[in-house]
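Journal club prep — side note

Before the paper discussion, L.F. wants everyone to see what a predicted structure for a comparable chain looks like in C-alpha cell form. Sequence:
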Amino acid sequence: MSGIPILVEAASLEVLVVGGGAVAARKAGALSSGGARVRVIAPVVGDAMRALADAGRVALLERSYESGDVGEADLVIAATDHRATNAAVAAEARTAHRLVNVADVASEGSFAVMAAHRSGGLTVGVSAGVPAAAASIRDAIAARFDARYARALDALSSMRDTLLADGGAARWRELSSDLLGAGFCDAVDEGTFEARLARWR
C-alpha cells in the first residue's frame, strides 16, 4: 500500500459525488459535515441522499452523469451501482488531474475515505483495506480516545497559542518536553493530566 495519510480542510473543497444510493449518501454526508460544498448527480436518489438534499447539505441534480460534469470539483467520488459510469467518472477525473474515489474498484481511484473518529481537536483516521475492519478498529480507538482527550488537547492548544503569541516559544518547548512524552496518554487516562498542566499556568 503506497497511500500517504493527510488531513484536508473540508471547508476549502468543492466535491462532486456521482450516485444517489447509500454509499454515495454516506460519503456526501461526511464531506458536508466537514464543511465541503457537495454537488450530487444521480438519476435515482435514495432516502438518505434525499434527506441531505432537503436539508440543504448537498446540491442535487437528478439526472445521469455527463461528460464535463467534473467541472471545478477538487474531489470526485464515483459511487453508482453501474460499473461503466464509475469508470467514466474516474477517467474524466484523472484526465482533469482531480483526486477521485471509486466505490466499486478502489484501484481506479487516487484516494480513499478513511473511517474517522473525532473528539474535539483529535481526529484519527483508519484505513485497513476492508471497510468493515477499518470501522471496527476506529470504534476501538474511539472507546479509549474519548472526551478526556478532547479536553486535554483543547487546553494544550489554548496554552500553546497563548505562549507563542507572547513570545514564549522556549517555554512551550519546555512544557512539551515535560507533558507530551511517553506518559501523556497515561496521564489523560488516569485523570492526572489537568493537574500536571496546571503547574505550567
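L.F.'s comment for the group: The radius of gyration is 21 Å. Keep this in mind when we get to the figures.
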